[in-house]
Amino acid sequence: MTESNTDQNQIILGYWAIRGLVEPSRIILHYTKTPFINKTYEQGDAPDYSRDEWLNEKQKLGLDFPNLPYLIHGHLKLTQSKAILYYLGRKFNLMGTNLKEQAYVFMLCEEVQDLRLKYGAFSNGPNGDSQTERKKFLETILTEYFKKIDQYLQKSNSKFIVGNQPTIADFQVFEYLDACLYMDDEQILLDKYSNVKQFLNTIRNLPELKDYITKIHDQIPLHNKSKSRSIRSIDTDFFLFLAAKFGGKVIKRKDQV
Ligand SMILES: N[C@@H](CCC(=O)N[C@@H](CS)C(=O)NCC(=O)O)C(=O)O
């Protein structure tokens, strides 16, 4: 899925071929119609789940803190998904129009990041493949976050999630809530939380994003094929790769929005 261009100054966004932690930044680049190189790394299949495609390059890119995702823009070489998100936010003037809005943008980005990390940990954890446990997770953690965001949207009553102009918070909140909906087989969440439903629809239907989200989103897995577990013993450290229990492959979601 690499988009080609020869401009030396073009942004390169590197990540696994999944939505994961970088999708909000990809969405921002699509929203701002910024040509970029979407450099993706494929993880191998079971049983080894090889990460060599990435590991062979990891130390060669001149990154101070080599990791995925990374962003390279001319001489700027960044890792850490939120450093990348905030860089793009500042670059494209998507951080809010005053100090209060900026603070809310940060708060919302962090709030849903907490949710995304819990969602990823659950999906890759021992219970991610159990429908009963997924339902419990949805009725507790996901419900709690959807409810909070719904109440916030009701109270703020603005065109976008922070004020009347789009900000990075719109894209981070959209992506991380949308990712959670793949677990909602019975389509409970959006029936209950109509402000969230309306918000997701607003972002999904932005003319700059509609095509990308409709055509591409359902083709990219949410999480990696496996999650590594670091095993420590007295004389050795090694990684065990366990298959992702949920979201490691493309999932067809029942249409909710
Ligand atoms: N806090 C970091 C976490 C980065 C991270 O855990 N990256 C995972 C994928 S989500 C990875 O596979 N990194 C490659 C590596 O460790 O070499 C961020 O937000 O960017």
Task: Give a short overview.
This protein is an alpha+beta fold.
Explained architecture:
- Helix content is 44%, strand content 13%.
- It is an alpha+beta fold and 257 residues long.
- The chain folds into two domains: 11-91, Up-down Bundle (Glutathione S-transferase Yfyf (Class Pi), Chain A, domain 2); 99-213, Glutathione S-transferase Yfyf (Class Pi), Chain A, domain 2.
- The strands form two sheets. The protein has a four-stranded mixed beta sheet, covered by helices on one side. A two-stranded antiparallel sheet has the order 5-6.
- Strand 5 and strand 6 form a beta hairpin.
- Helix 5 (131-156) packs across helix 8 and helix 6 (168-180) packs across helix 8.
- The relative contact order is 0.14.
- Residues 1-5 have low confidence and may be disordered.
- Bound molecules: glutathione.
- Glutathione binds next to loops.
Q: SSE layout and pairings?
A:
Layout: E1 11-16, H1 23-31, E2 36-41, H2 52-58, E3 70-73, E4 76-79, H3 81-91, H4 99-124, H5 131-156, H6 168-180, H7 189-192, H8 194-204, H9 210-216, E5 226-232, E6 237-243
Parallel strand pairs: 1-2
Antiparallel strand pairs: 1-3, 3-4, 5-6
Helix pairs in contact: 1-3, 1-6, 4-5, 4-6, 5-8, 6-8
Bound molecules: glutathione.
Glutathione (GSH) is lined by residues 20-21, 58, 67-69, 80-81.
